[in-house]
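ugh ok fine here u go
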Amino acid sequence: MTATRTGTGVIHLTSRDSQISGADMVAALTPPPQFASATFDSYRADSQYPSQQEAKDYLVTFAGGGPAPERGGFFRRAKKQPETKPGVYLDGGFGVGKTHLLAAVYHAMPARRKYFGSFIEYTALVGALGYQKTVELFRGTDLMCIDEFELDDPGDTMVMTRLLGELVAGGTKLAATSNTPPNALGEGRFAAQDFLREIHAMAANFETIRIDGTDYRHRSLDGHAVTLDDADYARAVADAATGSLVSDDAFDDLIAHLARVHPSRYIRLIDGVDMVGMRDVRAFEDQSAALRFVAFIDRVYDAQLPIRATGLSLDQVFPEEMLSGGYRKKYLRATSRLIASTLA
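structure:
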């Protein structure tokens, strides 16, 4: 979704109307701003991790850009054709360029109908339109790109299994990214063993490609988010508000507001905003609130918005007991993005 210019000054996200129609949600299914021009050529593979270049080569072929390369290395099998399965699934840690490559597939594939969205955007669309209408909407789609694929509850498992199965049967190609291999989706979050048939059926649609590497956002960072004192924060907000639209909210108020807004609508909260301000940041005690914040930060990062904050450093908001649980990868990805956003 392209940000709408709404003027300059200071606003409160907690007072914003977050309503978004099904049509708006569909219109937003394009790569986020920082990947609007992502290409395979602009992807910088780290020479220390050959799997990055090998994944790129594989995806060029998947997108229709050339003959399948002969490979060894982590694939272990030469001359394997991407077309053997209708989908490709990029599995790897955060910050290794998976979303860049996913967007490059989107831009490179000569498809008449193609969509790019986060996992939560697709499940939210089902919630807004209903399952059957969503299937009808996407039927005949040439390519569906799904970023940040994850199954946090049984309902999502059943919905996405059915949806992807119907689309694949109709000839749709799939491309997805995740921090978790497809056959391990849901582990540590719900009784995944009760849904193994559905999870394995969905995984069967994908050729899994592992991408190794280190988080590019940390390659030149010291690993800590920038925290301002009250005076510096007030100055930063005032300076930015002179020519831009800036949000300024107490952290607790913002977290409470996120609980009243569906995560699919978080993008509307920051529409037109140029900088996000949070006062009196503190550590989370409730996991549901922490996960909502992760989804919010994903949208802030997608929009490439700088964050200014006071209180606890934002890389410390997820306590150790949360980091040691089933959502560890989500929290670490959010931490990485928070650090980068405070330095922007």
